[in-house]
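queue> holo job accepted (pyridoxal-5'-phosphate)
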Amino acid sequence: MDSERYRELPAVHRLLAHPMVAEWLQREARSDVLGALQVAIDRVRQQLGQDEVQVDISEQAILDIAREVLATRTKMHLQRVINATGTVLHTNLGRAPLAPEALAALIEVAKGYSNLEFDQMTGERGHRYDHVEPLLCELTGAEAALVVNNNAAAVWLVLHELAKDKRVAVSRGELVEIGGSFRVSEVMRASGATLVEVGTTNKTHEADYERVLDDGVDLVMRVHTSNFRIVGFTYQPSLAALVALAHARSVPVIEDLGSGSLLDLRMKGLGDEPSVRASIQAGVDVVTFSGDKLLGATQAGIICGKREWIDRLKRNQLLRALRVDKLTLAALEATLRLYRDEANAWLKIPTLRLLTADAGQLHTVAEQLAREVTLCIGGHARCRVLETVSKVGGGALPTEDIATYALALYPISSTAVRLLTALREQSPSIVARIAKDEVILDVRTVFEWDFEELVQGIRNAADATASEDVGGQEQK
Ligand SMILES: *Cc1c(COP(=O)(O)O)cnc(C)c1O
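queue> job finished
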């Protein structure tokens, strides 16, 4: 019986004559339209093959499928979204937004050729790492620096070069998992190092380190416990004390700082995230940190420290597998340049600007947006301004709550979950969160250029969820 129905399936050329398809052809490439029609027909044919009784093989049903296929086919998969979560360094939403200076540098270098590995003075081969090394040294006080793909790669490279087949001491309080199953203990195993655990989860004393140092470890590693805090009955030696203990026995100290700030965040009341300069000053031999966390640039792993060690890393055969490309270097160099003038950095680097945005100003923005939203969501939802807190994100300053303002939407004839979903389905997608039975949109991470689409998106989402309820089957 189904073989007959196969024959009833409309052919592509017949569908091409449909007025709806003619309209698509005016907007989209013929190859995309043909492709979408073929996918739709194939999908229905497959359903028939699965012996399902109720397969709609009408032209309209196939065109409905084709419309959706065409929409995904002609849209970029990697897209901009509106971040209304308030989390400034949201790893799933791409972490740090770039400064205009970084974008300009990136376009300039990417659209044509560059001196990536070319020395204009001598006409000979240059080194890609030379573009940012002097800047990194200037900003951190380090003797030398190197940049790789991300901080995970930086940690791996440092361990692989300096600790392979050797013994590395790490405090039990620092054996962290960062996320995406990146665990200090696993990275150590993968790099060929042997982990020597020191002290306890909450307290590790100088004497604990001395004991393992005297037993003959080859390296001491300090890991910044980025994404959690142990509070209460705790102890760990200062960095300077740890360095003194290790250096007295000619053992180098490496540190994974995680976020690694180039400025003192305490100046702006932003908790106690260690700065790279402080680690270098304390005498740490090699420090690693991320390019796209508090630094506010692109994904990169930055390695700073004593020349002796950095030179060895530069000669590691596997450096090539971790190397950064010209886009990363362009954006990173432009961002680092902004740090030369501290006041400039706070203003121009989006991560720093968003983190320090004034609550009063955020309140004004939230009030303004709430007025606009109230005007256009009519009877579907109520909108109020809510005082709440934003998070830094990116595993930085996990206990820090930053006062902020948000729009709180209470759907009248739908649910918060449905409204949240509908917001996500907008273009651009709007990412928010739920608290109790309201959808919360934190204005801290919403840019000025997002405002119009945010209001429009809220309106469309409220309309969509309200109209789902027609018929009354949907319950709250
Ligand atoms: C975030 C983090 C990493 C990983 O950095 P990526 O740049 O995301 O690869 C490693 N160690 C610590 C302590 C971190 O906080």
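queue> The pocket of pyridoxal-5'-phosphate is lined by residues 150-152, 155, 178, 182, 223-224, 226, 256, 258-259, 290, 301, 395 (CB under 6 Å).
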